[in-house]
User: Fold this.
Amino acid sequence: MEISRKTVIYAMSPDNPPAARAESGATVCFETIDCFGGQITSPEQRLGGLDWDNINPATGPLYVEGAQPGDVLKVEILDIALADHGVMTDAPNEGVIGAVLTEESTKLIPIRAGRAVFNDKLSFPIRPMIGVIGTAPAAGAVPTGTPGPHGGNMDCKRIGPGATLYLPVAVEGALLAMGDLHAVMGDGEVVVCGVEIAGRVTVRVTVLHDCPLPTPFLTTETAFMTISSASTLEAAASDATLRMRDVLIHQVGMEAHEAGMLLSVAGDVRICQMVDPQVTCRMEVPLAVGEAYGYAFP
Assistant:
């Protein structure tokens, strides 16, 4: 099953009609547009000249059969195929770097042989990731550019091929949507974008009943992590840390004091992004910790 890039939303909402329906356990491909809505085709174009009503489109939503409020939607990211070029922009008052800029600029980034060509001296291996991915909140509408408990614009660079993301189900069918792919991005996304790019994301969606994991929650081949968004980095980092402590105690089976000490020894607090309406942090713990206690994630 494929959901076309022609079916996009600009807010996560229970009122969005499903673009498609799938059974639990199904594999689905989401065709996505870049975060600029495909508006930038030349380095002469500037961020300030774009139609901001078409920023951060998310393809979907997908209605997953059997998903009910209180469940968890398990999203296994099987593959991300990218377009042949990406886009970057900067501008005054946008992102952290915007505080010192006086004019706008735009750069097109070719993707060649698995690398993002930054300029004639530098290229970087691509690390495809999903910037916006989430489910509908129970009520109201959350713009796709804003992260929160539902997921959304978390801009976590670990959400890529081989990772499994656990999202909350707040409405019947979950209403999963995603977009804002990056070919590569550094933690923080300090200039307000990574290498923004269109592409195709193939995922497997599974409804989990009675899943105790705090959401959003992510596992990769090497780590597991809590993801939190808040108005400040301190609040986001603290929430991610405390929720990971709960996971270590109540799911992995560690003693309470050792769980906290473990996080100071082997846990890493990382900044996902610090440029959106809410900022996002994650707490990463090596997968080997869970394995040592015989814990397997659902």
